[in-house]
Amino acid sequence: MEPHRIPSVPDSMYYIPNFISEEEETSILNKIPQNHWITLTHRRLQAVPAKLTATNTLITSTPLPPYLTSPILPRFTDLDIFSGAPHGVNHCLINEYLPGQGIMPHEDGAAYHPVVATVSLGGTVVLDVVEKGCEGARKWRILQEPRSLLVTMGEAYTETLHGIQEVREDCDLNAETVANWGLLGDREVFVASGGVNERTTRISLTYRDVKKVSTIGSKIFGRGKT
Ligand SMILES: O=C(O)CCC(=O)C(=O)O
Ligand SMILES: [Fe+2]
Fold it and tell me: Does this model's pTM top 0.90?
């Protein structure tokens, strides 16, 4: 993973362009069920296999569906991304953002093992990362190209917030303003556009390990949480 480390951000964030191929991207996009979206004001989402309960527990009897696991999870294993996670990967949040949509700065928090892996599909977007705390907090911009993978762990997971601005274009993209500029798959696109990224529909797959799990079976037989 070391060659993919994003410089200047707190330990550790990694960016891998072209983590999946165009064919794989199209195939996943075509398999996302269109009748499972939960529509929010600023985006829509699907929590797979289920939404967490009020106590941040994943109650389920079904694993992630094959279109979300193959070919992505074996590649995570090859890169050793979730090797320290108690259940490996057990949850995927699918978020869809139209141009002008985004997500407020937030942290993913204690419900999950502190490793998150995000695969981007469709459009390009800037993820804003900011140190927790008040004035003078350091900020970074991370450009996420379609088919890329972004991994956040360690201090980057616990000590920063991340968000996506509700804009129709991301501006002023260059080597000075984009933390992962040197790791991008195709910088020339942004050079040619004068540093502007016109937003198009983006779908992200956010893979995590929910710490508290209760299978429906173990609930029925009274074995409780694992
Ligand atoms: O869409 C993204 O890349 C970010 C999603 C996110 O931060 C989340 O689901 O917690
Ligand atoms: Fe998040």
Answer: yes
